[in-house]
Design goal:
The chain is α/β, with parallel strands linked by helices. It has nine helices and ten strands. A hairpin with a 2-residue loop joins strand 1 and strand 2 (8-11).
Length: 274
C-alpha cells in the first residue's frame, strides 16, 4: 500500500509514525503545545531523529468543547511554522491538521504535503474539491457535529456499520472528484464515548474493506486516562498499549505525541509479522 508525496511513492506496508505539533494554547495534552518557532524546531529535530515520517501541524484545538478560532488566527499560527520547518528541515513531510480548505491550500502552497481533516469534509463544503484539485493525500476522519457539540452526538444504530457507511460514502465522493490518495481515520474520541472507541479499535480490521490506509490516533486521549483514573501527562504507557493493539489490527499510520515509544512498538510488533 502506497501514497504519493511530492511525486515520490511512500510505502505504508511498514507502519509509519506521525508526530503531533499543536500550535495552540489549549490542546488537551500540555506536552504537545508549542507557541514559538525555536521550541517547535527543537521538537521537530527530536521527532525526526526518533523516526517520525510525518509532522502534523495544527493551529485549532479540536478537543471536546474547544472554542472556535478564526481562520486568520489559525493561519497566523500555522503558516509561519510550516515555512520555518521546511527552511530548517527541507525533507520534512508536513501534514496540515485543519478542517478549513483555505488554510489547507495555503499550507500546501507553502510546502506541506498532506491534509488531515478531523471533520471529514463536514465543516467546510469546499474541502473535498480543494483536496482533489491539489492532489495531495487526504486523511478522512469520521466525526459528527463540531468540537463544541460532538460529545452530545454519540447515538448510533450500529456503531461499526454507521461509521463504515459514513466513511464509505465520503470515499466514493472523493473518488468521483478524482482524489487518489485517501487515508481513513475512525475518529476515536470524536462523537464517540470511551467504550465506543474501544469497540471501533477492536473492529479496526473491518475497515480494510475500504481499501485505504488506516491512521489511528489514540495518543494520550481521554479513552486512556479516564479509564485508568490518571492524567494525560501520565498516559504514555496506556498510549503504547493501544498503539500496539492498533498495529496488530493493521494500522498503517500512528499519530502520536511520543515518537520514540511508538517507533519501538512498530519495531517489536514487526517481529510477529516476519
Amino acid at each position: 500500500m502506497q501514497i504519493n508525496l511530492n511525486k515520490t511513492l511512500l510505502d505504508l506496508s511498514q507502519p509509519r509514525i506521525m508526530g503531533i505539533l499543536n500550535i495552540t494554547p489549549d490542546s488537551f495534552y500540555e506536552g504537545s503545545r508549542f507557541n514559538d518557532v525555536p521550541k517547535v524546531l527543537e521538537k521537530v529535530e527530536k521527532m525526526l531523529a526518533e523516526g517520525a515520517t510525518f509532522l502534523d501541524i495544527g493551529g485549532h484545538s479540536t478537543r471536546p468543547g474547544a472554542s472556535p478560532v478564526s481562520e486568520e488566527e489559525e493561519l497566523n499560527r500555522v503558516l509561519p511554522v510550516v515555512k520555518a520547518i521546511l527552511q530548517h528541515f527541507p525533507q520534512a513531510l508536513i501534514s496540515i491538521d485543519t478542517f478549513r480548505a483555505s488554510v489547507a491550500e495555503q499550507c500546501i502552497e507553502a510546502g506541506a504535503v498532506m491534509i488531515n481533516d478531523v471533520s471529514g469534509g463536514t465543516l467546510d463544503d469546499k474541502m473535498f474539491s480543494t483536496v482533489a484539485r491539489l492532489g495531495v493525500p487526504y486523511v478522512l476522519m469520521h466525526m459528527r457535529g463540531t468540537p463544541e457539540t460532538m460529545n452530545q452526538m454519540t447515538d448510533y444504530q450500529d456503531l461499526v456499520i454507521d461509521v463504515l457507511d459514513d466513511l464509505q460514502r465520503k470515499v466514493y465522493q472523493l473518488r468521483q472528484l478524482g482524489q487518489k490518495d485517501i487515508i481513513i481515520d475512525l475518529g476515536l474520541g470524536f462523537a464517540k464515548t470511551a467504550d465506543q472507541n474501544y469497540v471501533l479499535l477492536q473492529h479496526l480490521e473491518d475497515f480494510k474493506i475500504l481499501n485505504c490506509p488506516i491512521l489511528v490516533g489514540v495518543s494520550r486521549k481521554s479513552m486512556i486516562w479516564r479509564k485508568l483514573n490518571i492524567s494525560p501527562n501520565d498516559s504514555l504507557n496506556g498510549s503504547t498499549v493501544l498503539n500496539t493493539v492498533a498495529l496488530m489490527k493493521g494500522a498503517n499510520i500512528l499519530r502520536v505525541h511520543d515518537v520514540k515509544e511508538a517507533m519501538e512498538a512498530v519495531f517489536l510488533v514487526s517481529m510477529f509479522n516476519d
